[in-house]
Fold this sequence. Notes:
Layout: H1 19-31, E1 35-39, H2 46-56, E2 61-65, H3 77-94, H4 96-106, E3 112-114, E4 119-121, H5 126-147, E5 152-156, H6 168-178, E6 184-188, H7 191-198, E7 213-216, H8 222-235, H9 242-251, H10 256-269, H11 274-297, H12 303-315, H13 320-331, H14 337-349, E8 354-356, E9 359-361
Parallel strand pairs: 1-6, 1-7, 2-5, 5-6
Antiparallel strand pairs: 3-4, 8-9
Helix pairs in contact: 1-2, 3-4, 3-5, 4-5, 5-6, 8-9, 8-10, 10-11
Amino acid sequence: MSYFKLGPKVRREELYNREDELNRLLKCWKRGDPITLVVGPRRVGKTSLVLTAINEKAQPSLIFDLTRLKRIRRTGFESFMLIVEEALNSFIERFSRFRVKLLRALRGRNEVRVTEHSVLFRAVDGLEGELFFKKLIDIIDAIAASFKVNVVLVFDEIQEARRIATSFEYIISYIYEYSTRLPMTLISSQEGLMHKLLKFDDVESPLYKAKYTEIKLTNFTEKQAVGFLERGLEYHGIRASLELLKKIAKAVGCNPGWLTIVGNRAVKARRIDEKLLEKVTFEISTILQEELESFLELRPLARERYLFILRSLASSPKSWKELKSSLEARLNKKIGNKNFSNYLHNLVDAGFIIRKEGAYQI
Ligand SMILES: Nc1ncnc2c1ncn2[C@@H]1O[C@H](COP(=O)(O)OP(=O)(O)OP(=O)(O)O)[C@@H](O)[C@H]1O
Ligand SMILES: [Mg+2]
């Protein structure tokens, strides 16, 4: 057992303090709730929670990893189908009893080449791609019904589907309306963007008033963060003072992902002290910088404006008005309200800043 293994956890004993959430998720699947949302900030353990639940019950499931679309600005349905192909191949590998029936149902279709153990999609885009995806859903639903089991469909980082040039809410609503055995679990670290995409509250949306259950993950409390480090370090025979553990918890905002990196590096160094903390904090800031860089790469024209906003927030929280006038002073020109609000929205959506009590902060 190690709490400090990098990458998503897949075993209950490696997942610290998520018993309640795990049981809630398993209950949703057992009941066959059509939509379960798993939301929470970056690196809080959303993927770990879902993969652990799947592994625990050997739950038949297709995992659509939409994080792969993250660095693309706009793309066709074809990119989504590559993700579907990967999910399908992993599904038939993990759940071999579905393989024979599924491959038999797909054989002879011209959108796909079927080999003995896997499928290879022909590039299918646009409407043709959508129709094929819906067909796939029907086939999987029918096979699940014939086995009298549910097959969970996981969309990891669903908001990334906004990059696909298709109204993705129609894809989700198709599954919602027409399948009987396919409960969906939608993971998102950008709740605002997810709701913008799926529009549960918009009368015009096919998902208007669709029923969903939400499981919200939050960072650990200080006590939990310290407990996580303590137990993980103890397993590896590494000692640390309570004072240092509290300091570490605070330095990384009690975030499970960052705490895991600290623990992982401590295990490698066989010790934990101020020097190690300093090194890991530097490593973390490099990771964040890289993430910021890929965010800015997609927005070259406003790059300097974004950096200016982030730098001004680094010293203290500021209001919309304060930020706007200091940016205007810096550029020596006026910026439209809508434009400026967009900058802040994008930074919030990407998780670089938060809005709290009427002010923005890092
Ligand atoms: N409860 C936990 N117990 C042990 N390790 C955890 C826990 N939660 C998260 N982790 C670790 O933190 C890191 C991030 O977890 P994970 O990838 O599951 O989070 P996420 O919320 O899906 O992140 P992202 O927003 O990047 O997709 C991983 O290394 C994982 O092993
Ligand atoms: Mg994840």
